[in-house]
Amino acid sequence: MISWQAVAAESPLALKRRARRMNRILAAEYPDAHCELDFATPLQ
């Protein structure tokens, strides 16, 4: 578990790298993931 202090101390570059890594892992694990929201009009 990552503590909030560790996240707050993380550099912007490290944060981007961690986010990209998480994105790659999730994309590999769930290749067909998509948004389930399907609206008929923009105001729904």
Task: Describe the protein.
The protein is mainly α and 44 residues long. Helix content is 55%, strand content 0%. The protein contains two helices and no strands. The mean pLDDT is 87.
Feature tags:
44 residues, 55% helix, elongated
- Share of β-strand residues: under 5%
Which spans have pLDDT < 50 for at least 5 consecutive residues? none
Distance between the termini: 38 Å
Radius of gyration: 16 Å
Class of secondary structure makeup: mainly alpha
Number of helices: 2
Oligomer: single chain
Name the shape in a single word.
Answer: elongated
Helix content: 40-55%
Mean pLDDT: 87
Order of helices and strands: HH
Largest pleated sheet: none
| Count of beta strands | 0
List the helices and strands and how they pair.
Blueprint: H1 4-9, H2 12-29
Concise structural overview:
With 44 residues, the protein is mostly helical. It is built from two helices and no strands. The longest helix is centred in the middle third of the chain and has 18 residues, at 12-29.
